């Protein structure tokens, strides 16, 4: 309720000084002193050999190669050479990561910084302007090539007329006047 003689507040009051703005997990959270003071190490894993089923195919092949024939000998071989199947989820990549050289960096290499002197001289603007000029000059050359009229046979004959034929005075002997 509003205090006497004062308007009703439209906001929440702040908590006291002993309030902490975080979630508290009971039993596991010891705060900063616990994080600095000791290591919370995980329990060592039990051997994966116990969880995976036996690989009887491989063990039978090994027993036959060793020369065992009876069931009792096979059971003794199973106890001596306990081979387990590989789990489908247990792969080599999860066990160990490939060893990389110490000086190798992962990811994309950083771009070299732009030289300040080139920025102050407007070098990049000049390069861009030269590229634009070269592009417009190339476009104009293409346009001139397209606008050029092709020469026809008539225009070629006007420029370079064929040489006049020389008249020969030679006649066939039978057509000569006798």
Automatic annotation (TrEMBL):
Annotated InterPro entries: CFAP77
Spans annotated as Disordered: 138-168
Basic and acidic residues bias locations: 140-153
Protein name: CFA77 protein
Organism: Chordeiles acutipennis
């Amino acid at each position: 309720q509003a205090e006497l003689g004062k308007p009703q507040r439209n906001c929440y009051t702040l908590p006291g000084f002993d309030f902490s703005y975080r979630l508290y997990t009971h039993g596991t959270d010891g705060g900063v002193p616990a994080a600095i003071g000791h290591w919370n190490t995980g329990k060592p894993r039990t051997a994966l050999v116990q969880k995976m089923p036996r690989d009887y195919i491989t063990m039978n092949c090994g027993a036959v190669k060793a020369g065992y024939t009876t069931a009792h000998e096979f059971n003794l071989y199973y106890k001596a050479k306990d081979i387990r199947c590989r789990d489908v989820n247990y792969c080599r990549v999860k066990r160990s990561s490939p060893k990389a050289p110490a000086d190798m960096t992962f990811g994309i290499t950083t771009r070299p910084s732009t030289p300040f002197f080139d920025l102050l001289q407007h070098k990049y603007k000049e390069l861009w302007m030269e590229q634009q000029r070269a592009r417009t000059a190339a476009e104009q050359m293409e346009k001139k090539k397209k606008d050029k009229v092709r020469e026809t046979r008539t225009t070629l004959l006007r420029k370079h007329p064929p040489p006049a034929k020389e008249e020969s005075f030679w006649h066939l002997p039978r057509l000569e006047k006798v």
